[in-house]
Amino acid sequence: MTKNSESTAIDVAPENPNSGPIGKKKSTTPLLAAPVPVRQDRGTHRMKRGLAIFDFVLRIGALAAALAAAAAMGTSDETLPFFTQFFQFEASYDDLPTFQFFVIAMGIVAGYVVLSIPFSIVCIVRPHAVGPRLLLLILDSVALTLTTVAAGAAAAVVSLAHSGNSSTNWLAICNQFGDFCQQASGAVIGSFAAVLLFLLLILFSALSLKHH
Amino acid sequence: MTKNSESTAIDVAPENPNSGPIGKKKSTTPLLAAPVPVRQDRGTHRMKRGLAIFDFVLRIGALAAALAAAAAMGTSDETLPFFTQFFQFEASYDDLPTFQFFVIAMGIVAGYVVLSIPFSIVCIVRPHAVGPRLLLLILDSVALTLTTVAAGAAAAVVSLAHSGNSSTNWLAICNQFGDFCQQASGAVIGSFAAVLLFLLLILFSALSLKHH
């Protein structure tokens, strides 16, 4: 029974260079060096490959969300159509340090997602590989933290820009700079979408590790 | 070899109700219903128990950090020693919606950590249990997100309170309300400590799942 399921696994994943000699060897002694293929069967193999493909799709989505958030915040710039003798009224994302941090953090996250895509493809080709899966899980947690802290900080500032705060005498600026505020709000929504996608990525990585 | 390690595992973890009959059965047919104890040995068992104890300690630390952050922010309240005919100058955390959210979020996170401690103890008693470990990993990710978003938002507002922003005409209030600002800053630092501890918790949960 175990011998049978082992050869089945080799048929499904012929690209594994270690499994070839094991399949040809007919001795019944247990192989200490290759303990992985013993317990796999067709069902978990298919499920893990499905999870890996889903991981790839979610990763593309997270990349799109992070890039869209960075682009929306980075291009937010509004100049009012009137000006005094001394200065023009202009609002841009680099007036607020929080928004600058947001653009940089989203750029880093987008770069990380691009670099992580090859590992995700490795997980599709070899659904039982534990190393890349674990690496992705840990780095995804770090990316989740970076995305979330940028999203939270930008959301707090956007909320202040929308409604102001009477206790601290901070006035709402969205009455004057409506377009700027709308674009910043869109960027915050995009970053929270990225947060949600990273949470799902961690969930599926954990499920994939469970059935190892 | 496999038979030997199986009986060792049963000696160490006698509370598993499924392992008793397997240990007594002397037939060589593989049991489909109980594939888990085949590959475990004493080394990974010890390592997993060590990781589980470390998980418990980190969890206590995260609870302390979240409670301290909530308490520091919740008791931040300063009344200036002078007043006009019409009103007193007072700053409190509930003047700012972001700080209110921070206190509520830290309270929820502290409550979650308290509820998660029994599962952590289960993982110490049964280091090879996958269910509680996976549950903790997924819920820790959600708690990490909540902690991080509250920490990021509060950090953005504290930074504004400290240095203000000239573009939007938001003046720094920490010149007047120094003690209030200090307490809020301490709360933000505590919440970032909780973020770090949650990241470590996720890392160790992932490592523990890997060697399953």
Automatic annotation (TrEMBL), chains A, B:
Transmembrane segments annotated in the record for this chain: 51-73, 99-122, 134-161, 187-209
Major localization class: membrane
Domain Casparian strip membrane protein: 49-197
Localization of this protein: Cell membrane
Record has GTP-binding as a keyword: no
Membrane topology per record: Multi-pass membrane protein
Recorded superkingdom: Eukaryota
A single GO cellular-component term on record: plasma membrane
GO biological process assignments: cell wall organization
Alphabetical list of InterPro entries matching this protein: CASP/CASPL (IPR006459), CASP_dom (IPR006702), CASPL (IPR044173)
Pfam families given in the database record: CASP_dom
Keyword Membrane in record: yes
Keyword set, alphabetical order: Cell membrane, Cell wall biogenesis/degradation, Membrane, Transmembrane, Transmembrane helix
Region (Disordered): 1-28
Self-association and partners: Homodimer and heterodimers.
Record's function text: Regulates membrane-cell wall junctions and localized cell wall deposition. Required for establishment of the Casparian strip membrane domain (CSD) and the subsequent formation of Casparian strips, a cell wall modification of the root endodermis that determines an apoplastic barrier between the intraorganismal apoplasm and the extraorganismal apoplasm and prevents lateral diffusion.
Family to which the UniProt record says this protein belongs: Belongs to the Casparian strip membrane proteins (CASP) family.
Protein name stated in the entry: CASP-like protein
Lineage, broadest ranks: Eukaryota, Viridiplantae, Streptophyta, Embryophyta, Tracheophyta
